[in-house]
Amino acid sequence: MKKYSALILVVVFSLNCGPQKTWHTSTLVFFDTVCELRIFGSSAEFSQAKKEVEKIFSSMEELFSPEKTDLKSSHVQYLLRESLKINKNTDGCFDITVGPLKKAWGFLNGHYRVPSSKEINGLLKAVGMDKLQIKNDEALLPEKMKLDWGGIAKGYGVDLASQAIREMNIQKGFINAGGDIFCWGQNPDNDAWRIGIKHPRKSGFLGILSLKGQGAATSGDYQRFFIKNGLRYHHIFDPLTGYPAKGRQSVTVMGPKVLFCDALSTALFVSKEPENILKKYPDYGAVIVNKEGETLILGKKFDIDLIK
User: What pTM, to 2 d.p., does this model score?
Assistant: First the structure.
């Protein structure tokens, strides 16, 4: 479930609010990363919202633990079905069965290594969502298949948490779960929320997004990686080859549901034809940095200020 922060909130505070309602901020630790909650409301509303977020995130952590996933849970069943749809719509570029690859390369325990081609070919026999079956609400996994929820479960948790808070009639706020972000209402300056996209090779930002009632997520080759013999090996795998995907430095996806921002950022990182994928998701846009460092903006148009 690890996915380090790739999106950073950029906001200037101007707390000129009445005594009853004001901006509240809390930092939480879930999904092995730092999460931030910021909402506008009373102290009692903030306390209730924080408890709800903690409850949802804690549940997501438990449900989607790599070693203890409850395949009969309604949430797990939902994400299994959504993952199968996304897998089909992305020509296999998004695949939650890459768990054996991440383990073999050392991304689960930090003991990094480059497996032999023979080992990778053997592991690929347990990779591929076409090998996964769902019958009578029960998932049937082949032997040695391990599911990896890192590209979708955290985004789903942010969707659930932000929806629960908005149903409390809290009309302004944002949740940032280690780079999976959802913003709603206006920011403390009564404007759209401004989100910085981290530059994949330099300090500072690649650009600034303006979001309102939208989410965003980033996949990058700089988040978890190791270098051996001058080559960079990262944690975003091409499920067809068994090797880290090539051709991208980072992909940020924006749209109404963080679940899809999360999954599509992985799929577009892997895909050789990202435009075709985004045609199937017309409410989503992407900022892609290719291996040469060039920035491409695809899909639905969002308010983006690129930094030269």
Answer: 0.91
